[in-house]
């Protein structure tokens, strides 16, 4: 199984280019087993959704706090 660091890299890479089939399967298998990465993936999705819904607005304190929490939780 891929490491949490590799899984995180694939989640980031996915935003820049389509993943290969092997990368997709590796990431899917990892997030199915690893709750930390699964939670992180959901947090990325919710942050991305917030940005896509309001592309022209300045991020509010609630958004910044959520982002900081997500980053802190990821470091533990
Ligand atoms: Zn993980």
Structural overview:
With 76 residues, the protein is mostly helical. It has one domain. It is 79% helix and 0% strand. It has 4 helices and no strands. α1 (4-16) runs parallel beside α3 (35-53), α2 (21-33) crosses α3 and α3 (35-53) packs antiparallel against α4 (61-75). The chain binds zinc ion.
Helices and strands in order:
Elements lengths: L3 H13 L4 H13 L1 H19 L7 H15 L1
Helix pairs in contact: 1-2, 1-3, 2-3, 3-4
Radius of gyration: 13 Å
Q: Portion of residues in helices?
A: over 70%
Strand content: under 5%
**The biggest beta sheet, please?**
none
Task: Kindly state the number of beta strands.
Answer: 0
Give the mean pLDDT: 88
Through-space gap between termini: 20 Å
In total, how many domains does the architecture comprise? 1
Low-pLDDT runs of 5+ residues are none
Ligands in the model, by name, code or SMILES, are:
zinc ion
Shape: globular
Describe what is shown at a glance.
With 76 residues, the protein is an all-alpha fold.
Give short descriptive properties of this protein.
single chain; 76 residues; mainly alpha; 79% helix
């Amino acid at each position: 199984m891929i490491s949490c660091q590799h899984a995180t890299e694939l989640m980031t890479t996915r935003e820049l280019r389509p993943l290969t089939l092997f990368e997709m399967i590796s990431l899917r298998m990892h997030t199915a087993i690893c709750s930390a990465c699964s939670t992180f993936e959901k947090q990325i999705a919710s942050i991305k959704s917030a940005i896509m819904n309001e592309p022209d607005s300045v991020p509010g304190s609630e958004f910044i706090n959520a982002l900081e929490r997500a980053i802190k939780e990821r470091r533990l």
